[in-house]
């Protein structure tokens, strides 16, 4: 896997993935940025959310469950001192569908957290406390 990050100006950078997709990263005005892009640490959380959501949906889809929506709400705490690393991350899944089994959603979230999600497992090995929860919502 490869990526390229190119400085544009001030605190703005363009990140290009090996698959050819580009994202703008920029800092807040107080750090010399213009607030025109996502912050790098926010992108890290989005990557974690994407990784674990991909796993959860893959597991639920293989079970042929009728999922109509899946949202991962992620909250993180960072250290006060530099480097301001993540210390705690909580991922809450809101899974909506028809006649979903609570146990199936719980199992999918657990499998992602403990076995499949490379991003969360890597962060945990680096000392970040990651917790998960979920709610199941009946689709109308």
Strand content: 35-45%
What would you call the shape?
A: elongated
Helix fraction by DSSP (H/I, runs of at least 4)? 25-40%
In total, the number of domains comes to 2
Major sheet description: 3 strands, antiparallel
Strand order of the largest sheet: 1-2-3
CATH homologous superfamily assignment of the largest domain: K homology (KH) domain
Low-pLDDT residue spans = none
Helix-strand category: alpha+beta
Number of distinct helices: 3
CATH class of the largest domain: Alpha Beta
CATH architecture of the largest domain: 2-Layer Sandwich
The average pLDDT is: 97
* Rounded radius of gyration (Å): 17 Å
For this structure, the CATH topology of the largest domain is GMP Synthetase, Chain A, domain 3
Distance between the termini: 41 Å
Query: How do the SSEs run, as a string of H and E?
Result: EEEHEEHHE
Write structural notes for this entry.
The protein is α+β, with helices and mostly antiparallel strands and 140 residues long. The protein folds into two domains: 1-38, Single Sheet (N-terminal domain of TfIIb), CATH 2.20.25; 40-138, K homology (KH) domain (GMP Synthetase, Chain A, domain 3, 2-Layer Sandwich). 33% of the residues lie in helices and 38% in strands. The strands form two sheets. The protein has a three-stranded antiparallel β-sheet with strand order 1-2-3, with no helix packed on it. Strand 2 and strand 3 (22-25) form a beta hairpin. Helix 1 crosses helix 2. The N and C termini lie far apart (41 Å).
């Amino acid at each position: 896997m490869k990526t390229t990050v190119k400085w544009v100006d001030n605190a703005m950078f363009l990140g290009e993935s090996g698959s050819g997709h580009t994202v703008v990263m920029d800092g807040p005005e107080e750090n010399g940025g213009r607030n025109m892009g996502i912050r790098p640490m926010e992108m890290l959380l989005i990557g974690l959310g994407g990784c674990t959501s991909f796993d959860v949906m893959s597991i639920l889809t293989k079970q042929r469950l009728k999922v109509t929506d899946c949202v991962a709400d992620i909250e993180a705490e960072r250290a006060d001192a530099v480097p301001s690393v993540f210390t705690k991350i909580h991922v809450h899944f809101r899974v909506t569908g028809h006649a979903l089994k609570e146990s199936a959603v719980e199992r999918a979230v657990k499998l992602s957290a403990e076995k499949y999600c490379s991003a969360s497992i890597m962060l945990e090995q680096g000392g970040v406390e990651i917790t998960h929860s979920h709610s199941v919502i009946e689709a109308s």
